[in-house]
Amino acid sequence: MTTTLYIKNMVCSRCIHVVQEELTALGLHVERVGLGEAILKETDVNTAAIRERLHANGFELLETESAKLVEMVKTVIIELAQSDELSELGENLSGILAKRIGRDYAALSHIFSSVEALTIERYFILQKIERVKELLTYGELSASEIAYKLGYSSPAHLSRQFKQTTGFTPTEFKRTRAHQYRIPLEEIGVRNL
């Protein structure tokens, strides 16, 4: 038997490493740690100790069903936004979420909006914009290449959405070193309401 823990604020491989270390330090047998979850090889766990250890590192143990679903949606969206194959998915966001989470998209959308006070689509846009900021900061790709990579219909569409979200065009963002305005992934949605 195993126990699955759902953990908020896991957004990168470093987060996975920290959670793995903390759970192991508690003497737990970890089967797998991924974005937003950890699977333990035991069923009897001290959730208070886990909650405290995770909280000390900026994570939160999720215990309600709606919080778990919201975190699952966020995890899939973060993975998609950080993916280099967004232009090649061939499926819309609602279909991807329904398939990966195994729940009806309408139900996921309702729960997500009620918990986060923004839509799944808006959250996805905010994640993609942060990825655009990251790619612009690196300076290795043109706006056209970034637009294609992130599945935008055109560079103009990317530019419009970027300007609406950040107040800058991609060119202004690069020129003015506006990358200081990047938002940590775990704060997206909270700071953009």
In summary, what is this structure?
This protein is α+β, with helices and mostly antiparallel strands and 193 residues long. The chain has helices at 13-25, 47-56, 65-82, 93-101, 105-116, 120-138, 143-149, 155-166, 170-175; strands spanning 3-8, 30-34, 37-40, 60-62. 30% of the residues are buried.
Q: What does this 3D model show about the protein?
A:
The chain is of the alpha+beta class and 193 residues long. The chain is 55% helix and 9% strand. The chain folds into two domains: 3-62, 2-Layer Sandwich (Alpha-Beta Plaits); 69-193, Orthogonal Bundle (Arc Repressor Mutant, subunit A), CATH 1.10.10. The protein has helices at 13-25, 47-56, 65-82, 93-101, 105-116, 120-138, 143-149, 155-166, 170-175, and strands spanning 3-8, 30-34, 37-40, 60-62. Strands 2-3-1-4 form a four-stranded antiparallel β-sheet, sandwiched between helices. Helix 3 runs parallel beside helix 6 (120-138). The longest helix is centred in the C-terminal third of the chain and has 19 residues, at 120-138.
Proportion of helical residues: 40-55%
CATH structural fold name of the largest domain: Arc Repressor Mutant, subunit A
Order of helices and strands: EHEEHEHHHHHHH
Shape designation: globular
Find the count of extended strands (DSSP E, 2+ residues). 4
Low-confidence stretches: none
Average residue pLDDT: 88
